[in-house]
Amino acid sequence: MSLTNQPTRSDVAAIIDHTLLKPETTPDAVTALVADAVEMGVCSVCVSPNQLPVPHPSSLRIAAVCGFPSGAHRSAVKALEASRACQAGADEIDMVIDLAFPQTGRYELTESEIAEVRHAVPDATLKVIIESAVLDDDQIVEVCHAAERAGADFVKTSTGFHPAGGASVHAVRLMRDVVGDRLGVKASGGIRDSEAALAMIAAGATRLGVSSTRAILAGLPG
Fold this sequence. Notes:
The protein is of the alpha/beta class. It has helices at residues 9-13, 27-40, 75-87, 100-103, 107-120, 137-149, 169-179, 194-203, 213-218; strands spanning 16-20, 44-47, 61-66, 92-96, 125-129, 154-156, 184-188, 207-210.
């Protein structure tokens, strides 16, 4: 699907991960999330691993987070969490990196932890959350390179839980420049209306992680 022209409501829905990651989320809330996702025609729902398995139609993908939201977990723990999530029905894994590694220039450790998760879930779509609002441009570039070397499918801006902030057009554009067409770029965190969503897509995002899906789609042409 090309998003070079003005995207329609269905275009944008097709690249949305309809997300519910509040720690107080109940199974009934996840059931409602899935129903809304099917109605709106989105790509996937993104949930915490404790909510798996999630009953869903085959047309809807299931994403689960890993090492969320801090990323301050041993890589072996992240790998096990990702593996268990896939065994319970996740098609996609959104893992959070250990932010201490890029902030101290240890990009080989970032690559190593991503590679360990990649090895644990070889058939899943792997998205790497880099918490771009915390990193400077040089660190974003190096983390994106590490993610690509480690076999990730996407680099992703944010958890949406860090006080430094969520996605920015600048970060998405930079990430796209680094990975080219080889990896996807997921914009997530603070995208609450159609204007913000379209700006992220124009900057190079090929997936959006949002909880305000209905409001975003309502502002787009059919």
